[in-house]
Amino acid sequence: MQRLVSLLFIGSSVFLLSFTTPANNNEGNKPARSVTARKAAVFQVSTTDSKVNWTGKKVTGQHEGTINITDGKLELDNNVLKNGNFTLDTRSIVVTDIKDASGNAKLLGHLKSDDFFSVEKFPTATLATTSISNKGNGNYEITGNLTIKGITNPVSFPATVTVAGNKLTAKAKVTIDRTKYNIKYGSKSFFEGIGDKAIYDDFDLDVVLVANLK
Q1: Looking only at Cα atoms, what is the longest distance across the chain?
Q2: 193 class by beta-carbon count within 10 Å (0-12 exposed, 13-18 middle, 19+ buried)
Q3: Which of 79, 125, 126, 130 is the most exposed place for a label (fewest CB within 10 A)?
Q4: Using CA atoms, how far apart are residues 10 and 14, in angstroms rounded to an integer?
Q5: In sequence order, which residues have a C-beta less than 8 Å from that of residue 142 and are 6 or more positions away?
Q6: Could you give the CA distance from residue 38 to residue 82 in angstroms, rounded to a whole number?
Q7: What is the DSSP letter of 48?
Q8: What angle do CA 162, 163, 169 make, to 5 degrees?
Q9: Going along the chain, which residue ranges are E strands?
Q10: Rounded to an integer, what distance in angstroms lies between the CA atom of residue 125 and that of residue 93?
C-alpha cells in the first residue's frame, strides 16, 4: 500500500511539472536582433568621421579642397533609407591642392568672399532630401533641396548606403551648378570674352557620411 501511494505521488509530481515548466520555444537560442532589422532607426552623422571633398574646374585646370560637416541625420525604415539631411560649415573651406602658402591664402580668401560663398553672411549650406528611390542592394537615386547663400534649388544624385551593426556609411557625388546660387564669378554663361580665365559653372562634392545609431 505504501509503495502504491509513493508511485501515485511521483506520477502526480511529473504530471504537474509538465504543466508548470515553460515549453522550450527556442527564445533563449534566438540571436540578438540586428540593428539593421529594426523597423525604424535614426542615425546621427559623425562630424569627425564624415568628410566632404570639393572640386572646382576651370579651363586651365582645377582646384580641390575640403569642407566640414556640422550636423546631419539619416533615417531608415526596414533597413531602407527614407530621409536624410546634413549641414556644411562654409567658413571651414580648405584648399588642399595649392602648397604655396601665399597662393593658397589668396584662393581661399577669394572663395570665402562675396564673389563666391560669402561665408560671413552665409556660414552654412544645407541639403535635405525630398524624395528617395530605392534601386536595391544599397543603391539609391536621391532628390533634395540644396541651400547655398540662402538660395534653394533641387538637386538629384546617386548614392550608396551600407549598414553594419550600429554604423551607417553613405556615399554620394553631387554635381552643383554654382550660377543657380548667384555664384557667377568667371562664368562664361554671364561674362563673354574671358577666354582661358573662365571657371566652369559646375563643381562637385564627394560626400562620405558616417553615422551612428541614436
Answers
A1: 120
A2: exposed
A3: 130
A4: 6
A5: 84, 129, 131, 132, 133, 156, 157, 158, 159, 172
A6: 13
A7: T
A8: 55
A9: 40-45, 51-58, 61-77, 80-95, 124-136, 139-148, 151-164, 167-177, 199-213
A10: 12
Please list, residue by residue across 2-29, b when 16 or more beta carbons sit within 10 angstroms of its beta carbon and e when fewer do.
Answer: eeeeeeeeeeeeeeeeeeeeeeeeeeee
Backbone angles phi, psi at 129, to 5 degrees: -70, 145
CATH topology of domain 37-213: Lipocalin (2.40.128)
User: Which amino acid is located at 131 in the chain?
Assistant: S
pLDDT of 4 reads 36
Domain boundaries, the chain: 37-213
Cell of 128: 535635405
Measured in Å, how far apart are the chain's first and last C-alpha atoms? 69
- H-only helix segments in the chain: 2-20, 101-112
**Tens-digit pLDDT profile for residues 114-171:** 999 999 999 999 999 999 999 999 999 999 999 999 999 999 999 999 999 999 999 9
Considering only CA atoms, which of 22, 63, 87 is closest in space to residue 204? Answer: 63
**Cell numbers standing for residue 132:** 528617395
